[in-house]
Amino acid sequence: MLQQPIQDRLPLRIILLGFMGSGKSTMGPMIANAIGYRFIDLDMEIEQRHDTTIGSVFNELGESGFRAIESAELRRVFRRERTVLSTGGGIVTLAENRRLIKDLGFSVYLKLSPVELAERLEGSKDRPMLFGEDGGTLSGNALVERVEQLTSLRSVHYESADLVVDLGRDPGVDPVSAAADHVVRAIHASAKRSI
Ligand code: S3P
User: Which of 68, 104, 137, 144 has the fewest CB atoms within 10 Å of its CB?
Assistant: First the structure.
């Protein structure tokens, strides 16, 4: 029997999971490009379709309001095939999102330690989940503590992704493109295993 080309054996939808700062939005287009898929960034879809910013949604509706919009948007974009979807780090907090992701796609967790994440997130001003009580962005130890607190709640869900890629272990020469290559190789390897 003729072997199907590897391209035809790839999952129809690849969902990038991981904490804020793990590189989902940066690596997503590279991964999509490498396998000839379209790229969708869920947060950008929310901002464009609602003509707003994630910060304004949190300001006006709080975290629960944002989660409702995020879930609705996930359901909306999800039927599209041959897509790499980058999700917000908190997508795994709702059971209905986790179910949808399991049912319809192949999930890839881009894993980094809380300390590595906090280093990358230092100075980030547009992430409401990292704001302190005074509304300012957390930094230093307070930022590490917030990242640890949130990852301790979310890790169990990230870890149940179809593929876990530990980015901290294999930074490579150019961290971003090397990491994206690494993820593409891991997706191909998993597609081979699943035939
Ligand atoms: C969030 C992550 C953000 C964005 C929102 C909430 C979170 O996306 O969806 O600020 O709860 O972790 P990124 O992971 O792309 O930063």
Answer: 68
